[in-house]
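#dry-run=false #mode=assembly
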Amino acid sequence: MKDRLELKDFYSGFRQAEVIKSYAKLIAKEAEKLNSQLNIMEVCGGHTHTIMRYGLKQLLPPNISFIHGPGCPVCVMPKERIDHAIALAQLSNIILVTLGDMIKVPGSQSSLQDVRANGADVRFVYSPLDSIKIAKENSDKTIIFFAIGFETTTPMTSALINQVIIQDIKNMLFHINHVTVPEPMKVLLDDKENKIDAFIAPAHVSVITGSKIYDEFPRDYQKPVVVSGFEPVDMMESLFMILKQINEKRCEVEVQYSRSVTKDGNRRAQRLNDKFFEKSDSFRWRGIGDIAQSSFRLKDAFRHLDAEVRYRDKLSTAKIDDHKLCICGDILKGKANPKDCRVFGTVCKPSRPLGSCMVSSEGACSAYYRYGDSP
Amino acid sequence: MKKTDKIKLAHGNGGEENSELIREIFYKAFDNEILNKSEDSAIIEEGKLAFSTDSFTVTPLFFAGGDIGKLSICGTCNDLAMMGAKPKYLTCSVILEEGFSIEELEVIVESMRKELLVNGAIIVSGDTKVVPKGSVDRIFINTTGIGEVVKKGISSNKIRTNDIIIVSRDIGSHGATIFASREGIDLGGDLESDCASLYPIVKKLLDENIAITALRDATRGGLSAVLNEWAKQSNICIEVEEKTIPVSDVVMGFCEILGFDATSLANEGTFVLALKKEEEARALEILKAFNNSATTIGRVTNRHPKKVILHSAWGTQRFLDMPSGELLPRIC
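#status=ok
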């Protein structure tokens, strides 16, 4: 064991050609025992990108298919939420701060990069805590942090709110768009036409929540879940674990990403989230529709920090649907593949997207566009 | 591109949007045979002279491995060197923001002076403008250069199937250094821009009579932009072995944390070479004397003309596309 971790320790052991090829052989052997096609949903867009970037489909036998899931935070935001960000950014004396993935996402009329080009002050941060510096340097302006992401990023927003209160920062508000992973998975399974046989779940979410959030899937839906890391070796091992479960007639939650995921997760982060957030009654997911208890909102004691409350009169809540040619909704539900879309790569491209799946670093269309089909 | 569109930061990315802007606005207006060749510098006067210009704006002005002054000389001189030309005469045009520090200006100009010596070039004409606070971001520098073509015929339009592709050193360190410093990401002391003049290396290759097909420094858009441009310009397919692409541990770690590809990060002292297979060993020997990470990364085929194919170490393959959009870190 080394005294000090180096950057390369986080990835170098998880891309070894020999290990990947060995798993490909093990998977092929297990796949021979299957009686029918096995459809595995990788819930998270990060996994979709791993599959495409590393060409993992090319290593799998034809009776194993991936169904790309809805785990892309900006992709599942309905246009009216994106429009909120754009509307807030255009108000005078406002600096809108958000994570990089939001910049190109198309709202109903424009995107944050469009309004920035027209003079709006839009900034992206890698760490939400950097917003504190922006707030201190611009005391005459209101900073709105447009918070987005699944359970992985919610604690970063909580940490920011905590600091805003501790440091008594008066000029920062929040627009909260934090959503949860298990709820949409249940909605997809409740659809009688779904073809999902098993799930690969995102490890980074479970680092925070623990693997326990998936307990109900084997129990109530008879679907195996493997919580997987994002490196190619991680995903190949996870696939092998799913096949073993099926062939051994087991059905359980297993953790492949044992290097950071426990059953209960990061309790300190959970406590911080609980301090500021509670579940909303319902959230409208792009392409999927209203899902109960699937998002967070600020607790009443912190509503004075909520930009949605403060600017209620400026933010429309009318539902805005996608462009009629855009099939992101079906892609997010796992019912269509990016290649099924008539406008993929033609009318809809990363430089001029119709839907956010084409521009998000976790969007399925973006993965297909960037990494394409195998030559 | 519609008339109602506005310029976005993505239009300056050296990738897809940037090409579209140049093609649809500038090439359309200035259309001529020399410009249309899209080389690193224009070849004029019956092949005797190379001519190129570049403007420099960078935040921070001073970074590990260089500053805007060094960059402004390397950038233009490297564009000349990439056409087999010896940089000779440069002009220097500086736009300064009211309130800019004289002390910093002196440091920048001193860096320029030193870098001119490396190239054996001189500044022969210049201009300064001072604009009110807020009109520019501290200092913008333009340099324009003329070089004497030492070796004729180097061109990105003539790469053929018996050529191989070499990269002169590990990639992505300039882009990573600038981004990390802008965002205040501290990855330890190892990260340093590759900013350097390339003429001394090119001179050595030419002195040793290496038959070079094409050279290009992998600036904005990085290695993937160069390979894609070459594939299109020469109507060829470039097939690259991913594991052979040299990336330092610190740049790779940086990419992993933020979700970037080292192949689309900018370089300021790294170039790509296309040359005949027979020249490979001799060329690598020379390049390795300058930087030991120089290596062959791929070959030219006719499998998918105008495309770049990336082969993984485990036998899968995919297309490597032109980078698109701004450099934006992923959410999680």
